[in-house]
Inverse folding.
């Protein structure tokens, strides 16, 4: 696939592999933090190219360059088409309507599993959870219709009302059980349904939250909060069931009560968010950001920043203009056929990321500028710490100062 745009030498082919790492925010293979496996990679690629030549898919040209034959172009096209199909499927999965369809299937399936368990056990916590799951199935249908017919704000109101209604009914039933004691019966099916519900809702909630944030959909954010509640509910229900086995049914009533309060609290918070956005303003979804996503973005920023510092320290970029050119090259993924097929060729806000990384290097006191860029003593200490940390992770097998592959300055 790396040869599908034209003839390449070994280093240019190798760069296609490093580009995948950079696209994910990992710059370590480009500088001294990487394990010393460059020679091994070059050898493996040379052997692979030799086999492709023997198979008649690749031809050798002069000056160590390789090109595809007609059969090779056909094979590369088949692989790229397969990647494009997979990327199309992934894009469909990230569409809000698809998330709603998945939510409908998941919630009704879970309700069908939990309702018999709730009836058989008599657990108020599990019964409240089942009722909420059934309403979530209905809510998923409403979300799908709201997104499809551009009535998402109206759907948000219905979702919040359903959430508050479910919480209120659960609250009433939990309080009633405090005065009318009942000891649930517990079996393996009850436990299994609760545990399975928690695991499925955890995955579904993350899926809904990610797509909701990506598309700015408050309706999906609302559903993700409800899915998160189900995870807490499942843990609480299991706790209550264990307490019932120990002949302490009061805890199951307490769990049902806490679940109802949690649902009501979430409904009130979302109602306030809807009220603030009633004038057509976009709701503030930053408070619902996924923690791991933020950590990943911090990792990407640190990787780019440390790589830029390394480029100056090794005199591969001695001026601001040269460093910006190197960084722009490193974040340009259009030349790589496989990344384009994945839909990852274009990366938004590239220049903003570069400017932010350069500004942080000056802000942290790691870089200074006179007639040229210079790494400060603090910057060198930082690079040394990063190198030692990488050495410990890789067992000390490092190649200090490993040159990166050819960039704009060769």
């Amino acid at each position: 696939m790396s040869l599908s745009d034209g003839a390449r030498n070994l280093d240019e082919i190798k760069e296609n592999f490093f580009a995948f790492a950079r696209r994910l925010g990992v710059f370590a293979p480009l500088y001294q933090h990487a394990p010393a496996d460059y020679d091994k990679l070059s050898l493996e690629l040379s052997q692979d190219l030799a086999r492709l030549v023997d198979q008649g898919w690749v031809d050798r040209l002069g000056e160590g360059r390789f090109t595809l034959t007609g059969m090779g172009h056909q094979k590369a096209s088949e692989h790229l088409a397969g990647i494009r199909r997979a990327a199309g499927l992934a894009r469909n999965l990230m569409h809000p309507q698809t998330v709603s369809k998945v939510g409908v299937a998941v919630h009704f399936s879970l309700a069908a599993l939990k309702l018999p368990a709730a009836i058989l056990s008599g657990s108020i916590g599990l019964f409240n959870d089942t009722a909420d799951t059934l309403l979530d199935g209905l809510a998923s249908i409403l979300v799908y219709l709201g997104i499809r017919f551009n009535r998402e704000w109206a759907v948000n109101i219905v979702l919040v009302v359903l959430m508050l209604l479910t919480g209120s009914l659960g609250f009433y039933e939990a309080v009633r059980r405090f005065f009318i004691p009942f000891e649930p019966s517990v079996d393996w099916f009850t436990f299994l349904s609760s545990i399975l519900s928690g695991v499925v809702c955890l995955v579904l909630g993350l899926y809904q939250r990610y797509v909701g944030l990506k598309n700015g959909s408050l309706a999906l954010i609302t559903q993700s909060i409800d899915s998160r509640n189900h995870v807490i509910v499942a843990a609480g229900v299991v706790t209550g069931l264990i307490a019932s086995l120990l002949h302490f049914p009061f805890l199951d009533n307490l769990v049902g009560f806490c679940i109802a309060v949690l649902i009501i609290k979430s409904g009130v918070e979302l109602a306030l968010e809807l009220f603030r956005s009633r004038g057509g303003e976009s709701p503030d979804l930053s408070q619902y950001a996924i923690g791991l996503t933020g950590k990943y973005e911090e990792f990407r920023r640190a990787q780019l920043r440390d790589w830029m510092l390394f480029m100056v320290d090794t005199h591969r970029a001695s001026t601001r203009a040269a460093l910006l050119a190197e960084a722009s090259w490193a974040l340009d993924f259009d030349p790589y056929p496989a990344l384009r097929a994945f839909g990852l060729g274009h990366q938004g806000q590239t220049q903003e990321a570069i400017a932010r990384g350069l500004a942080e290097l000056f802000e942290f006191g790691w870089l200074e500028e006179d007639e040229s860029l210079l790494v400060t003593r603090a910057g060198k200490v930082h690079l040394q710490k990063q190198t030692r940390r990488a050495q410990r992770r890789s067992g000390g097998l490092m190649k200090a100062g490993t040159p990166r592959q050819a960039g704009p300055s060769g």
Summary: The chain has a mean pLDDT of 80. Residues 5 and 47 are 21 Å apart (CA to CA). The first helix runs from residue 10 to 23. The chain has two domains: 1-93+290-410, 97-288.
